[in-house]
Amino acid sequence: VAFVVNATPMVRYDYRLGVPESGFYRELINSDAETYGGSNVGNFGGMQTQDVPWMGRQHSILIHLPPLATLAFKLQK
Fold it and tell me: Is the overall model pTM greater than 0.85, yes or no?
């Protein structure tokens, strides 16, 4: 599971996150969801990896990182 925290009040669109394996990463947690009273900035349930090395990993996903939020992504097998 990959966790990402944005402790700033700004949305980070197209934030690249390095991941260990290729595939589809399902968004498990988004603390900015409307359900929790957030602004509902999200990733449409998950993202497919790109073969772009990032953060010391061979693959990465391009996500929208909501303000003052925590996200969790898990590789869907």
Answer: yes
